[in-house]
Amino acid sequence: MYRKWMILAIIVLIYLPVSIDATVLHVAIPSLNDALSLSGNELLWVMDIYSLIMAGLILPMGALGDRIGFKRLMLIGATIFGIASLAAAFSSSAAMLIAARAFLGVGAAMILPATLAGLRNTFLDKKERNYALGVWGTVGGGGAAFGPLLGGFILEHFQWGMIFLINVPIIILVLLLTTFVVPKQKGEKTQPLNLMQALVLVTAILMIIYTVKTSMHQFNSMLLLILAIGLSLLVFFVRQQLASRTPMIDFSLLKHPVISTSIVMAIVAMIALVGFELLLSQELQFVYGYSPLEAGLFILPFMIAISIGGPFASLLMNKYQLRPVATVGMLMCAASFWGLAMTNFDTQHIQAWAWMVIMGISVEIALLSSTAAIMSSVPANKATAAGAIEGMAYELGAGLGITIFGLMLSFFYTQAIVLPTTLPVEISVAASASIGEAMQVAQQLDPSLMHSLKNAAAQAFTQSHSQVLGIAGGLFFILSLFIYWALSKQAHKQ
Questions:
Q1: What CA–CA distance (Å, rounded) separates 413 from 288?
Q2: What span, in angstroms and rounded, lies between the C-alpha atoms of 179 and 98?
Q3: Res. 203: pLDDT tops 70
Q4: Beta carbons of 261 and 480 less than 8 angstroms apart
Q5: 140 pLDDT above the threshold of 90
Q6: pLDDT at 379
Q7: Structural domain boundaries of the chain?
Q8: Top-tier CATH class for 250-494
Q9: Which of 152, 399, 169 has its CA nearest to residue 291?
Q10: Are 299 and 356 in contact (CB under 8 A)?
Q11: What CATH number labels 1-182?
Q12: Main site of residence (predicted)?
């Protein structure tokens, strides 16, 4: 009995840094800009490479765990995560930090399925397993939600590298405890890994996203070639999955309208959560001069709403059917985006927090209703495959949230900024690319010109942020109509 709860403690301990690392950098953007002189494009890669790599590898790493046992998978994943944390903490360039974050994603893709397999194999009693899963879910959601606050606290007292260094003692402790406490498991040697399929998917995703990001600033025949290769690989991957007897992703599940719609909901909910946090933390620090800790505290109501929104969403799900709950959740998200688009975050604090609470609850409604719908719509023998697809959707949504919101912001910022006419050409080019670059090059100017450039960048960012939030509200409104139509009463009859 004692060993069982010790294993749960180990699982919680290793899962915490994995969930935190998805959002902890949101308040570190100015610090990273100062230390590494990141371009806007490099910043997006630093932020989203972790979730994108994780999304592509999480399914085959789960299969690897079945093959070698979750203990070995956890040890390997934790080791990679620890080494990558050290590399990230001491990165001296954007390329090095992006590579380290990518390897963090590889380690996290191993750790996540290992923790779930550990719970499944350790807690054989259904009631105990549900309790353990509840603890696991709370740690995952809470870690991601409170990542910006933790990042802000660390940056208030230490250099940015400490954000990654705090992972190292946790990893060392986990490795020791796992080695001596967790029993060995027999692996299934016949379990297919699908590793090559995963590499094809990851390569396709990264090539497509690279093309989209880079084409915002320049477009040439080489980018067109990369996009064509990426799309071809994606088509090849889908066709391979449909023809395979042991596919990495069971696309047949997506034929069910409830499941396919719920996957879309999970992705867009994560896009909203991560994208909004990223943009708001930049505005608070770059425009209004908040410290990282002050920015984390400002976002706290949003984090709390996500963390406690689960019980409220559960009540709605128990009382009403999926169709009205999901539709209202998306409408609430649309309304909160529109409300936030018309809010001054520097002076209208109460209004901002109220809209953030509404958004946090609506995001949680979308996440929980999508999970409940998927689990209730698949046969028992397909539950694991469906759950794996949803887990992948969460990580893909987190990566896409950074990409989509970041690119929209970059486009509107470039269009909105009105630069002082006396700026040198090379400084004008950098300043019009992103607010981070504008703040960097402003340090090279005399005080009066520096002040003018910072004001121009701040005004352009605020205007762009409002435009992005307004467009997001419109897209969520359209999505709510789509969900109402897609989740027909016939499709959701219970």
A1: 17
A2: 30
A3: yes
A4: no
A5: no
A6: 67
A7: 1-182, 195-245, 250-494
A8: mainly alpha
A9: 152
A10: yes
A11: 1.20.1250.20
A12: membrane
